[in-house]
Amino acid sequence: MKNLLKNRIVVGLVCIIAALAICFGLTPMFNDALTSTVEIVRVNAEIREGDQITAKMVTSVEVGGYNLPSNVVYRTEDVVGRYANADLYKGDYILASKLSDTPQLKNEYLTGLDGTNRAMSITIKSFAAGLSGKLERGDIVSLIASDVGDLRETLIPAELQYVEIIATTLSDGTDSDMQEEEDDAGLASTITVLVTPEQARLLAELEQEGSIHAALVYRGNRENAGKFLEEQARVLEELYAEEPEETEGGEGAEEENPADGERAEGESSGEGSAEDGENKPTGAESEKAGQSEETGSDKADDSGSQE
Predict the structure, then answer these.
(1) Mean pLDDT of 130-158
(2) Residue-averaged pLDDT of the chain
(3) pLDDT score recorded for residue 242
(4) Domains of the chain
(5) Helix, strand, or coil (residue 11)
(6) Does the pLDDT at position 197 exceed 90?
């Protein structure tokens, strides 16, 4: 075997055979894969998230089959009548992951409420108060109150350092992305935030007494946004941890102590017996009164006999 490998003729023949296999075997297969075409479904008109897809919105086109996504949709029948899970633009390939058989609920962000937090809207009273129209859903903001009270103070409450925006709404009640630069898109007049009951109460007071400004803290992936919300939850826990204890102490102070009640009853019964003792004569006093009455009657009899 070693002698064959040392033979140049044998080595040359092996190389020639390998080259022929590559040229006439692998290369044609690779070229066929590159030149093969398949029909896929492509977006023909802009489709918004939640829209039901119609036949006019999509078209079937022939494209190269090499390096296509594994979940690309090939037939229009698998698309028409279904709903878009994301915004689709003209020229996009339609992927199965972007389709849904059921329509999305209106204001679906409200369906995630479980009773722990509250969804609350606050008014954007000026262009600057809403970050010049650049706020959008998912942003983490700090809420600052200005012109509060008679002294027109500016407050940055610790309870409102990190708050998540879940919707921005136009004056006609429709939700909108405030970053969109469409001709018919307006600025949001309110923003809806996710807050705890304590935060909601504070927000209501501040909005009535002054103006609220939103300062952007973070915009990015959900994981990092959650860190800000966890920090805010920790601050709220520290701020409101002592209130239940104080309330319980107050309730305990207001409740009557059974021992105190028994003591009070004992004192009242003692006072009553003392009063009865003062009003009722003792046995000795009764005997003395009886003897004095008898003596008086004897004296009366003697005086009568003498007469």
Answers:
(1) 90
(2) 76
(3) 62
(4) 2-100 (3.90.1210.10), 108-245 (no CATH)
(5) helix
(6) yes
- Its pTM stands at 0.51
Crossing angle (nearest 10°) for helices 222-239 and 197-209: 80
- How far is residue 108's CA from residue 50's CA, in Å, rounded to a whole number? 10
Nearest to 122 by CA among 187, 188, 216: 188
Q: H-helix or E-strand containing 288?
A: helix 283-306
DSSP code of residue 72: B
What whole-number distance in Å separates Cα of residue 210 and Cα of residue 207? 5
> Which residue reads 């970050």 in tokens?
131
Side-chain-side CA neighbours of 46 within 13 Å: the count stands at 1
Encoded tokens for 237: 């826990």
Q: Is the pLDDT of residue 259 over 70?
A: no
| C-alpha distance from residue 56 to each of 36, 76, 84, 269 (Å) | 27, 11, 14, 95
CB 155 within 8 A of CB 144: yes
Q: Which residues are CB-neighbours of 93 under 8 A, at least 6 positions away?
A: 40, 41, 42, 43, 68, 69, 72, 73
Backbone phi, then psi, for 285, in 5-degree steps?
-65, -35
Token pair listed for 51: 């829209």
